[in-house]
Amino acid sequence: MATDKPTPPAAQKTRRILLVDDHPMVRERLTEVILREPDLTVCGEAEDRFRAMEEIAATRPHLVIVDLTLKGSHGMDLIKDIRSQYPDLAVLVVSMHDEMLHAERVIRAGARGYITKQEATRKIMLAIRTVLNGGVYLSEKMAAQIAAAAIGGARAKPSLPMDKLSDRELLVFEMIGQGRSTRQIADELHLDMRTIETYRARIKEKLNLKDANDLLQHAIHWMQVEGSL
What we know:
Layout: E1 15-20, H1 24-35, E2 40-46, H2 49-59, E3 63-66, E4 69-70, E5 73-74, H3 75-85, E6 90-95, H4 99-109, E7 113-116, H5 121-132, H6 140-151, H7 167-177, H8 182-189, H9 193-206, H10 212-227
Parallel strand pairs: 1-2, 1-3, 3-6, 6-7
Antiparallel strand pairs: 4-5
């Protein structure tokens, strides 16, 4: 696992980093941090999944930094797109969401690290360096949980009710909590309404929710908790 001291940059060509986040202020902060390093540069920015794929094709970055919440899309889908089309391209997730719920999911999807936006600048740079150098960056607590699951031959026992949900079900659940209607979710995910209704039914079953109103209240509460992290 990574130590607390970033690896000093070796004499090498400048490595390009693409930033994908729907908040301009976050991209500005990350750009400022990255450009302090003489061997790193920001080669492009994007606020959604489709623009990100265009930027990857145009700029050929060495690393893509991805948030999970993107404009009109979701970071998990972008990670899967990158893994499918650019399997050797490193991805680091920098997000506000709960590491204990999301980190293992993004690693399985193809990312090589996860760090929350609340971490200090030195920690974010450590994560960037670790992933660029071919390693995997996670907090010690999260790394221990994933290692325990690997030794046991299966995922660790779910510690949160939302662990029962698939990646797509969790995304639909979060979108419900953000106040989106079934039609809006279907349009944003490019799916038909019947598919979204199926996801809603599975979520209610897995979380033991009585009806649509119960689902909505739980989803809103969850997003309030997530948003406070």
